[in-house]
Every structure is written in structure tokens, then in C-alpha cells.
Amino acid sequence: MSPVVILALAVLGASAPAAAQEAYPSRPITIVAPFPPGGVADLHARPLAAAMEKVLKNPVGVVNKSGAAGAVGMSFVANSRPDGYTLLLALSSISIIPEADKLFGRPPAFTVDQFVPLALLSADPTILVVRTESPWKTAREFIEDARRRPGQISYSSSGIYGTLHMAMELLSHAADIKLRHLPTAGAGPAINAILGGHVDALASGPAAVIAHIEAGKLRPLASWGDRRHPALPDVPTFKELGYPGAEFYIWAGVFAPRGTPAPVVERLEVALREAVNDPDFKAAMDKLKTPIVFKQGEEFRKFFEADARRLAEGVRRVGRIEEKK
Amino acid sequence: MADTLANLWVGFSVALAPSVLLYAFVGCLIGTVVGVLPGVGPLAGISLLLPATFGLDATRAIVMLAGIYYGAMYGGSTTSILMRIPGEAASVMTCIDGYAMARRGRAGPALTIAAVGSYVAGTASVVALMVLAPPLASFALRFGPPEYFALLVLGLLVLAYMSSGSMLKAVAMALLGLLAGMVGIDQMSGYFRFAYGVVELGDGIGVVPAAVGLFGLSEVLLTAGQAAPPEVIKPRLRELLPSRREWRESAAPIGRGTVLGFLIGIIPGSAHIISSFVSYAVERRLSRRPEEFGRGAVAGVAGPESANNAATSGAFVPMLALGVPSGPIPAVMLAAMMVHGVSPGPLLIRQQPELFWGFIASMYVGNLVLLVLNLPLVGLFVNLLRVPYPLLYPAIVMFSVLGVYSVNGSVVDVWIMLVTGVVGYLLRKFGFETAPIVLGLVLAPMIEMALRQSLAMSDGRYSIFLVRPIAATLLGVALVLTLLSLRSLMTRALDWRARLALAEKGEPL
Amino acid sequence: MLTTDRLAGGALGLLALAVMFESRRLPLGTLTKPGPAYLPVVLAALLLLSGLALVVLGGRAPRPAALGWEEGRHTAAIVAAVAVVALLLERLGYRLTMAAMLLVLVGMVERRGWVVTALFAAALALGSFFLFDTVLRVPLPRGPLGF
To answer: Could you please report the per-residue DSSP string of A217-255?
Structure first.
């Protein structure tokens, strides 16, 4: 090789590690939203990116990497370089997917410990809704009817082992009832199914159904939250009704790949804390009717682990449906 | 009625406000560019530009996004006709006769008919949307899994009218496509099928990369190395507009395509992709010269293109009237509305009349803008054909890879395009058609899911299909059509062999 | 006598058998509760039948050699080029990979003049990158040198 080339390579080689020691951040940061555009992940990621850009004074962009109910995007971040430039905006399904993989004996697309939790952004409890024409006026009536007629009352979900399915599963276990499950291709088709009268009930994120509740098409019976939802003050929680095991949130949180250096993690945590208080971000979340629930560090870790444990048990209980007859 | 007109007047005053008009225009322009790129379809286009709309108010944002949607549909026909590359999955049928017309020097007329047909369909269906949205939406919601299944079975029968060669070969290709559609996560049980650890295959073999491969790349592979470059009769300027005969031949297909596309489009779900397939089959069945199909039949372009656009408007019916997402694109539009603080729902029309009527009015305006935009562009696009082929095809390959990659940022999609390209090349060399493969690929996951959902709903009883009126009717129609075509198959069995021989000697489709 | 139809039919039949073999690990389910393997097996069986029919009826089709494969060299080159692009796209970055592909296809396969080729390749690669990455804000891969 000519001496010029060798010199050039040497210079490049020398400058590479130097680049790694530059102050963080020095390059655009990418937040990966593992769902198709327009979904819950997106609606959190984009305002967050805008707010973080202001705080860090560094470009922050959002990339959609959708597929396999989020597995594609999540495993992409799990395997990317832990340098703080690739982050993940995950939903509660992050705990479900590795469990489902284990259930089927597949090598997992990723594992939960491949991530460092940075912050929780929101935790929307799911709401149980039925059509206004249905005979059940309260959650209690619904549960009693389900006990009398096991397997007759149907509900739709966004897909097997999906968030909406798991919510119902937790309720079924806590209340000792058996419902008939109709998986659909996503949250949208799940709502279509109940509106069209093809199923009797649905566990849904509040933002998607509040408009229908206000229009009088759907009736909310109970919520899977810790507290009553601010937009639905008359709707009791399952906890109040005596089923504390039925607690489920569709939460959104930011994660970084494991191995991201501690100073970078700290910088990001601080940035997130500030970004969440940004007025534009707050306004965006308001418009989505999603209350900001911000947790970090130990608090988030505890929340996350409790949630993951509940979901793992739920997935194991559902088991592989082919084995049940 | 007077009420509607009054509201529409308000809507127009909103839509024609210069700033709103500007956004509609920008949306249409971007949409056209996005649509022309192979593989990048309306969904990709809208998703790309969703963040750019965050700073705008709700009406402008929705108007711009809708413009992108329409623009992409218009633009998609351009690459289909000029280079046989589907701009998005729904343009696949236009590739067949549109490209054949281009090869005969009728690229200009093809593009014009596609544009005009799209305009007529788009405008007419917006009128229907405006007048009939709420009752249509309620009807559409009654389409549950059993009805969906019946409709898709009907769509599968379309296959019988898609092939101009051997029926056996078409069936084999459809089966191949159906099987390919089985790859991915089984949504009813959670098993990964035939994915072999490639996470990106979890959602199956993408229709877009497969369509670009089977149609576009295979075309390049077939023609790039041929000693004589594909003889494209370069059209002269005078020949950019359709002849009177071509106009006459396109009138009825445009009408039928509009109605058909709209009705299929209002059904929640992704059935609207099959609108162009169904229109093609209907046109072929009703044509007095069915042997023209595949060789440049005007109806084969006019029908599917109109159906496409009508389905686009149809998809907005459930979205606007009830606030339910009827497919991935309306879902993004709903999200855009939510981001701007508009709660989509049944009360949208009442609570946000400005948004609703402004949106409707902007659809009229958008269609007109696109027509005006596309017609002069026909001349420009047709000149692309003058670029020497050895320079053109590498550019086509590059844009195909770019388009397919940029949708998901995934190299797996590029590999899918390559593999389907090679498979398509071999199949076409051996005299098989690739359109049924795309149909199978699109339909398989939907049919399977609809069937299993129906059985889940009914606890395993097949009677659910007969008990529900819409499903039973559709299945009945399907049965009648099958019997009819079987009968005509038998009466034409004698000269079928002769057709087979002819089709095999003819140009590869 | 090997004809195109027979070759195709045979290939399809083999594919069908492979699918059925691969499906054995998935639960079949029943007619009233079809499992993940149900429809694939049914479709594969139908495909096998079609493949057999093609083999049996395919006597009149032309032989593969008679089809004329003059474009084969070009075809192989294009396929190879796209494969290399797929492998290198995320490693070397978009602009380098595409420019290289265009150089190879236009310069080596089509044998156009080097100046024209270089200009063409640079213009298209850089232009399309600009359109997507900058104008449409769709991130395209950048190589290790940030290019």
C-alpha cells in the first residue's frame, strides 16, 4: 500500500478513540419507536424528542422500526452500541415479548436485562368498556354474568399476548372468570370489533375510547389502575371492587442499551427530567389526554419489575393455547 | 340537503383560504414525489411527514396529510405505467396493462387516463363520503370476521379472471403467493411460522418489497441484458392525449371502478388493496375483447386506477364518521388529529365542523390540484423513457432499493426484493404470471385470520357463515361465480389449448 | 423430456413438500379450531397437486435451453450487484454503496465511458441521498466515516 494510504489509515485510527471521548452528546441522538407511525409509542416519542433537543441543545430524532409487535425495534436497540446515541421508547410489551418467546421455546429476540431503564413517561390504566346497549351496567354485573356463563362473553384484543389481552387475562385470573378471546390485528381493529357488535367487551387504553364514551356508544365499567382516571372520575378501579391483582398500565418509558457508560446515563436522566417539564411536551401529552407519570431510578425500577412479574405470570398462565382444549 | 350544501360552503371557505390551499398543494406535491418512488407508498409518505405537521394547526395538518395520501396514489401509477414498478401494492394491476400501453407508445394516454380516472373517482367518492358518511359507516362496522372472510373469498375468485394464460399456472402462482403469506407471527396463536429467527419476518414477507421485486426488478432482469433493448416506441408530443376511442373505452370502467373501489374501501381493514384487483377482474369479465387484457387494454388501466382512488376516499368514511381507524393510513391520520387535540369520534362532525368540512372540501381541491399537476407532468415523465436504457435501468435498480429500504429502514426488505426479483425473473421466463402471487400474498394472512376469528367467535361452528346475512350473501355470490366460470371453462375447453399455445408464444407478461 | 413446465412443476412440488415438512413442528389443530399449521399444510397439499399436474401436462412446453438466455450474464451481474449492496448498505453507508453499484453496473457491465459513468454515479447517489435524508428527513445509513 502506498505510504499516503498508510498515513491516512493511521490518522483515522488515531482519531477514532478520540471521538469516543468527546463530550456527550456530540452527534444526533436517535430514539427508536418500535411501532408503526401514529401509534402510542410515536405519540410519546416525537414530542419527547423535540423537548430533549431543546434541553440538550443537540439534535434528537425519532426512527420508526416496527415489526413483530415491537420485537424488531426493541431487539435493534438491544443490540446497538451502548454509547447513548440510540435509545428506545418502549411500551409495556417489552416485558411480554421475551416471556412469549420463552413460552414457545424460541431464542428470545431480546431480554429485558439488555436494557437500562431511564425514565417512565406515562402509565395509562386500561379501561373495561362494553357497548351501551349491553345488559351490564356495572363491573360487578359483568363479572357475575361471566361466572354464570363461562366462556360465553367475548372480548377483542390487539393480538395474542398483547397488552389488551394481558389486561383481560389478569382480570380473569383475579376474578376467577373465563371469557372468550378474539385476537385481532391491532388496537384499531379491536375497537372496530366491539363497535360493530362482534364481541361483547374490550380492555382498551383510555385515549382511544374516551371519544366513544362521550358519544354514548361505549360504557366504561372499571379501570385497571391504581387510582381513578382523571377523565373518568365515576369509573371505579378493580382494586376498589376487590380485585387488586387486576392492575395493568399501558406505560411508555425510555430505555438505553445495557453497558451505556454511567455518566451518559446520568446526563440522559437529567435531560429527561427537564424535558418532561417542558411546556410544549406537557401540552402535547395534554392533547393526547395522557397524564404524565414520571418515574426514574429506583422508583421506576420497582414499578417496572412489579409490572414485568405480573405480566410474566400472566403469559405463563395463558400458556400455549393449542395445549388447552 | 341544503344543510349539507351550506356546510360545504363553509368547508370551501376554509379549504380555499390561501394558507390552507398552500398546504394542500405542498402535500400533493410531496405525495406525488413520494408515490413516484418505487415501493414508497402513501403510508410511508404520511409517516415521513407526520412530524413536520406538529407545528401546524389541526386543519392544515390534516389537509396536508390527505394531500400526501392522494398524491402518492396518483404518483404510484406513474412508475407502474412507465417502468412496470408498482409505486405501492395497490398499483400492481396498473403495471400489467399500463406498461403494455407504454411499450406500444401509448404511455401518455395511459398516464392521462390514470390521472383523469383517479380524479373522477376521487371527486365522486368524496361526494358520496359527504352525503352518505354516517349510514355507510354504520353499515361498514357490521363487517365482522365472517363477512370479511366471505368478501376475501370473493376476492380470491378474482384470480380466475386475472390470467390470460393457463388457469393451472395462475392457480399454482396464487397458491405460491398464499403460502408466502403464511410466513410470520400467527396472530391467533403466537407461533412464529417459517421465520427461522429473522425477527424482521415477524410480520411476514412484505407486500411492497415483494411487489417491487416480482414486477419491477424482474422486468429489469429480463430486459437489461437483451441484445436489442426493449423497443419502447418513443411517443411524440401529439400523442400524449388519449384518442377518442381510448376515451370511450375508459368511461365505463372508470364509473365501475369508482363504485367498486368506494364500496370496498369503506370496509374497515386492509381490504382496500384488493379494490384494484377486483376492478381488473370485473373489467376483464365485462369486456368485449378480453384477449386485449395483458397487452394494453385501456379498461385495464382505467378501472383499477379509479378503484384505487375511490377506495382511498372510502377508507376515510369510518374514520370521519365514527372515529375508527379502518386501516394503517387512517390510523396515522387519526393520530395526527389526536396530536392536535382533536378527538376523533362519532361526534367529530358535530364538534369540529370546520375540520370535517374543510377536510372534505380540501379533498375536492386536492384532486383537482393533482389533476392539474399530473397532466403536464405526463410530458415530463414520458421523456424519462428517452433516457438510454443502459443508463436508465441502473437508476431504476437504485431507486427500487432505496424505496424498499426506506419504508422500514430494513435490509431484510432489500433481500426480499432481490429474492422475489430472481424468482419473478425465472417464473416469467418459464411463462408464469406474477400478479396472482401478489394477490395470494396480500390475501393469505387476511383470509386465514378472518376464518379463525370467525370460528373463535362461534366456538368452532361453521354455521356462523350461513347465519349472518351479509356473509351468507357474499358467499352465495362467490358460489354462483365459481359455477359460472367452471361452466364457461368447460365450454371453452376445446380452444383453451390453442390459447395456451398462443399465450406462450406471446410476450412474457 | 424436461420442459419448462415440468421443471417449474417439480420445483413447486418440492417446495410444497418442504413446507409440509417444516410445518410438522407446529400444532395442526382441528377443523373447528385450526392451528398455525393447518392452512399452510392445506395450501402446500394443493400446491403439490398443482405441481404434479404441471409435470404431467407439461409435455408440450418448450425446453429450458430453447428459451434463449442471452441476458443471463447481465442478469447475474445485476443480481450480484444488488446482493452486495444489501450486504454493504448498512456497513459502508448509502452514498458509497450506491455510487459503487452504479459505477459497476454502468461502467463495467454496460461499458460506458468512465467520465460519464463517474458523473452519473455521483449525481444519482448524492442526489437521492439529499432527497431522502435532507429533504424528506428519512435517515439513510451513513458509513463508519460518517459519509
So the answer is: SEEEEEE-SSS--TT-TTPPBTTTTT-TT---EEEEEEE
Q: Angle at Cα B129 formed by Cα B127 and Cα B130, nearest 5°? A: 65
Question: How many Cβ atoms sit within 10 Å of the Cβ of residue B288?
Answer: 7
Distance from CA of C6 to the nearest CA of A (A): 38
- Radius of gyration over alpha carbons of chain A, in Å? 22
CA dist list (Å): B316 to A136, A290, B319, B329, B333: 32, 25, 5, 9, 9
Instruction: Round to whole Å and give the CA distance between B223 and B184.
Output: 33
For residue C57, the SS3 value is helix
Cα A315 to its chain centre, rounded Å, is 16
> For C66, which DSSP code?
G
DSSP-assigned letter for residue C144: T
Say how far apart CA A313 and CA A309 lie, in whole Å: 6
Measure CA of the first residue to CA of the last residue in chain C; give whole Å: 55
Using a CB-CB cut-off of 8 Å, the residues of chain A touching B459 are 151, 180
User: Which residues lie across from A130 on neighbouring strands?
Assistant: A201, A219
For the cut 60, the answer to whether the pLDDT of residue A241 exceeds it is yes
pLDDT bucket at B495, cuts 50 / 70 / 90: low
Indicate yes or no: CB of B190 within 8 angstroms of CB of A72. no
C-alpha span between A49 and B137 (Å, rounded): 36
| Model pTM above 0.90 | no
Q: How far apart are the first and last CA of chain B?
A: 49
Grid cell in block for residue B190: 403466537
Q: Mean pLDDT over residues B187-207, rounded?
A: 83
**Alpha carbon distance A288, B419 (integer Å):** 42
- CA–CA dist C41, C47 (Å, integer): 10
Q: pLDDT digits over C84-139, tens only? A: 999 998 888 888 888 888 888 887 777 777 888 888 888 888 888 888 877 776 77
Q: What is the DSSP-derived secondary structure letter of residue A123?
A: E
User: Which of A154, A192, A285 should be substituted to probe chain B, the one whose Cβ sees the most B Cβ atoms within 10 Å?
Assistant: A192
Three cell numbers, residue B453:
376469528
Measured between CA atoms, the residue of chain A closest to residue B322 is: A212
Q: Which position has the grid cell 345488559?
A: A135
C3, C50, C67, C88: which to substitute to probe chain B, counting the most B Cβ within 10 Å? C50
φ, ψ of residue A220 in degrees (nearest 5) = -85, 135
The pLDDT value recorded for residue A20 is 47
Three-state SS for B378-432 is HHHHHHHCCCCHHHHHHHHHHHHHHHHHHHHCCHHHHHHHHHHHHHHHHHHHCCC
C-alpha B341/C-alpha A284 separation (Å) is 8
Q: What ranges make up the beta strands (E) of chain A?
A: 29-33, 60-64, 86-91, 115-125, 127-131, 154-157, 180-183, 201-204, 218-223, 249-257, 292-296
With contact defined as beta carbons under 8 Å apart, do B185 and A69 qualify? yes
Q: How many CB atoms sit inside 10 A of residue A26's CB?
A: 10
Backbone angles phi, psi at B352, to 5 degrees: -130, 60
Task: Calculate the dihedral angle through the C-alpha atoms of B343, B346, B347, B349, rounding to the nearest 10 degrees.
Answer: 100
Task: Work out the average pLDDT over B442-463.
Answer: 87
* Residue B206 forms contact with A (CB below 8 Å): no
Q: Which three cell numbers stand for residue C147?
A: 459519509
Rounded to whole angstroms, the Cα distance separating B364 from B14 reads 12
Q: Binning pLDDT at 50, 70 and 90, where does residue A15 land?
A: very low
Yes or no, beta carbons of B187 and A196 under 8 Å apart: no
Q: Identify which of A103, A127, A115, A113 has the alpha carbon closest to the alpha carbon of residue A34.
A: A115
* Residue B496, H or E segment: helix B493-505
